[in-house]
Design brief:
Belongs to the Nudix hydrolase family. Its cofactor is Mg(2+). InterPro entries: Nudix_hydrolase (IPR020476), NUDIX_hydrolase-like_dom_sf (IPR015797), NUDIX_hydrolase_CS (IPR020084), NUDIX_hydrolase_dom (IPR000086). Keywords: Hydrolase. GO terms for molecular function: hydrolase activity. It is a single chain. By secondary structure, this protein is of the alpha+beta class. It has two domains: 142 residues, Alpha-Beta Complex (Nucleoside Triphosphate Pyrophosphohydrolase), CATH 3.90.79.10; 141 residues, Nucleoside Triphosphate Pyrophosphohydrolase (Alpha-Beta Complex). The chain is built from six helices and 15 strands. Strands 1, 2, 3, 4, 5, 6 and 7 form a seven-stranded mixed β-sheet that branches. A four-stranded mixed β-sheet has the order 12-8-14-13.
Length: 294
């Protein structure tokens, strides 16, 4: 009677833009070039999420995070060879969505004498058309993969004084570092937009202020890489209020956040394109009727 062998393994689909992170199987596993998702066997007593994070580091040298949910794939090969003997093999593969930091180094194998010979980012198109030869699990996982959807609602303050607009600048921790935008941010659960304006004006500008009336509502939909390295189908909704602030020079209060500077910026400088601003800034200026001809 052929021996039955069952194996539980955990893998991750890690996508960045139009590329996917793959590991090439070592020659001792297969004599031909064959790429797989980073991952491997789950040790006895090991949580599958811990297993895939461990395997990703061993095979790619990268520190990864994985999502809470996964797809499960089953492969039964009744007549298979494992370690020189014929077996009835059943593989259960748990595949998570994973991501690595946006500034992660190039992947490299850290495991010695393991089943992985190389790790690299490969074009998804080349995987799908067969240019990059892969195990069947890769195409199965890609067929089920969907970019995470995220919607964020934020409130922003439009404050004008003496022909200048109060703006804050994004830090290296934010998308598009060095870009100027209206002070504001995400509305916390249970928080009113007006309270968000009050809180954000203090954290980002060091000024006490209040929302006066609603100016406009904007939205922006795009797919890209979040600061933590995760691919997101992102929908941003911005509620913009006219606001007033009290006396004092603006200064950034919150340390280590997504804002590294604040200033009163002349509307003429914005109109002349003398600094990089988000499109929402220009849209708010237009909604307020504060366009300046230069």
């Amino acid at each position: 009677m052929v021996q039955r062998v069952q194996r539980l393994a955990a893998y991750a689909v890690i996508v960045r833009g139009d590329q996917i992170l793959l590991s090439r199987l070592a020659e001792r596993v297969t004599k031909r070039e064959l790429w797989s998702l980073p991952g491997g066997g789950v040790d006895h007593g090991e949580d599958p999420r811990d297993a895939v994070v461990r395997e990703i580091f061993e095979e790619t040298g990268l520190h990864a995070q994985v999502g809470e949910t996964a797809h499960v794939y089953s492969l039964h090969v009744a007549d298979s060879w494992r370690r020189g003997r014929r077996v009835d093999a059943h593989s259960v593969r748990i595949v998570y969505e994973g991501w690595v930091p946006a500034d992660a180094p190039e992947p490299h194998v850290t495991e010695v004498d393991g089943s992985t010979a190389e790790a690299a980012w490969k074009p998804i198109a080349a995987v799908l058309d067969g240019t990059v030869p892969t195990v069947g699990l890769v195409s199965e996982a890609l067929a089920s993969y969907a970019v995470r959807q995220r919607q964020r609602t934020a409130a922003y303050a439009y404050v004008v004084k003496d022909g200048a607009l109060l703006l804050t600048r994004t830090s290296d921790l934010a998308p598009d570092p060095g870009t100027w935008h209206l002070p504001g941010g995400g509305i916390d659960h249970g928080e009113s937009p007006r309270d968000t304006i009050r809180r954000e004006l203090w954290e980002e500008c060091g000024l006490e202020g209040e929302a006066v009336d609603l100016l406009t509502v904007l939205d922006h939909h795009f797919t890209g890489t979040a600061p933590n390295g995760r691919e997101e189908d992102f929908h941003a909704i911005g509620v913009i209020y006219r606001a007033e602030v009290g006396p004092g020079e603006p200064r950034v209060v919150e340390e280590g956040g997504t804002t590294d500077a604040v200033a009163w910026v002349p509307l003429a400088d914005i109109a002349a394109g003398r600094l990089k601003v988000y499109g929402s800034v220009r849209a708010a200026i237009e909604a307020a009727g504060d366009n300046v001809t230069v």
